[in-house]
Specification:
single chain; about 220 residues; seven-stranded antiparallel β-sheet; 8 helices
């Protein structure tokens, strides 16, 4: 008897890869992808965070089952050549205190020519700020109630960027988070803040069922 395609997907939902396992799941399909991946993996900021025992490293989009990834906005629709080229590297501090994520935004994500669309930056911040507070909430998942964005400078396409977030307040199922996107500084450079954000995230009543896929996970 044939096995339903839904069964592997359901198994992947119930037993997603660990944070550590996500670090080995992405296989760059060509040299361009490999260069981007290696640049993030070996950047001094990545090495610093990787050496800090208070942070757990992962590639969160790779926890989503492959069969479902194409239906996910940032993990599928906006991922690939010219877009979010490789799955972002993310470091979460214990207890949902803070988060750092490094990613590369390609040249097909523009509003004005050469400038990353502001709506995409808001989406990245929405997802990053929410993920930051997951571990501080009772079931490890939250949904956006409010999100405020302040665009400071244009974000160039075809560039590496860093998202940094911190949880500033927790009350039961509610978490308040602040964060920003900045340039990924190279040797001797100071990063430039591009976009700032703050948000309120609320854990839904069905959080226990959602947590399997969308929580920060364990290493």
């Amino acid at each position: 008897m044939a096995v339903s395609p839904a069964i592997p997907t359901m198994n992947a939902l119930i037993t997603p890869p660990s944070d550590t396992e996500t670090l080995t799941l992405f296989k760059p399909p060509n040299e361009m992808f490999r260069e981007v991946d290696d640049s993030i993996r070996n950047h001094p900021l990545a090495l610093e965070l990787r050496a800090n025992p208070d942070f757990t490293e992962s590639r969160p989009h790779l926890r989503i089952p492959e069969a479902q990834r194409s239906h996910n906005l940032t993990g599928g629709t906006l991922a690939g050549a010219g877009k979010i080229v490789v799955p972002p590297f993310t470091w979460c501090e214990k207890g949902g205190k803070s988060l750092v994520s490094i990613l590369y935004v390609g040249t097909d994500l523009c509003g004005h020519p050469g400038i990353v669309h502001g709506g995409l930056l808001a989406t990245i911040l929405d997802e990053g700020l929410a993920r930051c507070c997951f571990a501080a909430l009772p079931h490890g998942v939250g949904m956006t109630a409010t999100l405020n964005i302040n665009y400071r400078k244009p974000t160039s396409a075809g560039a590496f960027i860093v998202l940094k977030a911190k949880t500033v307040k927790i009350e039961g199922r509610k978490a308040w988070v602040e964060g920003y996107i900045e340039t990924l500084a190279m040797d001797g450079e100071e990063p430039t803040v591009l976009v700032e954000a703050s948000g309120l995230f609320v854990e839904p009543r069905q959080a226990a069922a959602m947590a399997i896929v969308y929580s920060a996970g364990s290493g």
